[in-house]
Amino acid sequence: MALLQALSVFFLTMTTTTKQEQEEVIVKDKKRKYDISLYKRGDLLEVPRTMFTHFGIYLGNDRVGHLIPDILPLFTSDRSSIDTMVTNLRLILGAITKVASVRVDSVEDFAYGGDILINPMDGVCSRQPYDGEEVARRAEKLIGPVSYSLLWYNCEHYVMYCRYGTNMSFQTFQFCKAVRKIFCSKRFSLVSALIGVAIMFYLQTDPFYTLLPTFFISFHIWMAS
């Protein structure tokens, strides 16, 4: 209980610095003013970041609906703290603990200082987008806590469903493709076999309990490569 209280104090203290960070981002990007007249209700907005790309749906009147992990709701129900801009720390911890929601933020808070691309998926997705009003309606209907998965339900799945009616993520596809290329390869099959044999000799275990699983694992990786 004491640990939970300590964590709560930590994250509440963290939110006080969030406002300072938010002001720093605004000051830093003072020269960059987001022209909201460029966005139409139902537009899909994309913000490229360092390690990933964030997505949202423009709802009009400087409001963006987007799915984002945030650990803060685990420690407080204070809306004034939760509604502040989600920092990278809150986002990362939220992704780890799988705590997320579809929330509405200003364009400035959504972009977090990044550049905004408008409807880039229209040229990638094979499906035609819904009417802007229908897209916004679907986005607004999902506002609130959601089940989050980095691979199977993230911000891209959310906007793809809202705009095109399909639950998919090109980021997830590329990631899984890269993982498959690494682990489902002939080279990794041989490495796994060598590791299994090395463990068997190091632990001096019965070959039946080590060699047989090593063979089956390496064989399946080899066949999948």
From TrEMBL:
Keywords (A to Z) from UniProt: Membrane, Signal, Transmembrane, Transmembrane helix
One GO cellular component term noted in the UniProt record for this chain: rough endoplasmic reticulum
Sequence intervals crossing the membrane: 187-203
Gene3D superfamilies given in the database record: endopeptidase domain like (from Nostoc punctiforme) (3.90.1720.10)
Signal sequence range: 1-18
Biological-process GO terms, alphabetical: retinol metabolic process; vitamin A metabolic process
All copies of domain LRAT, residue ranges: 44-171
Active-site residues annotated for this sequence: 155
GO function terms (MF aspect): phosphatidylcholine-retinol O-acyltransferase activity
A UniProt-annotated Pfam family: LRAT
Record flagged with keyword Signal: yes
Record protein name field: LRAT domain-containing protein
Native source species: Alosa alosa (allis shad)
Lineage per the UniProt record: Eukaryota, Metazoa, Chordata, Craniata, Vertebrata
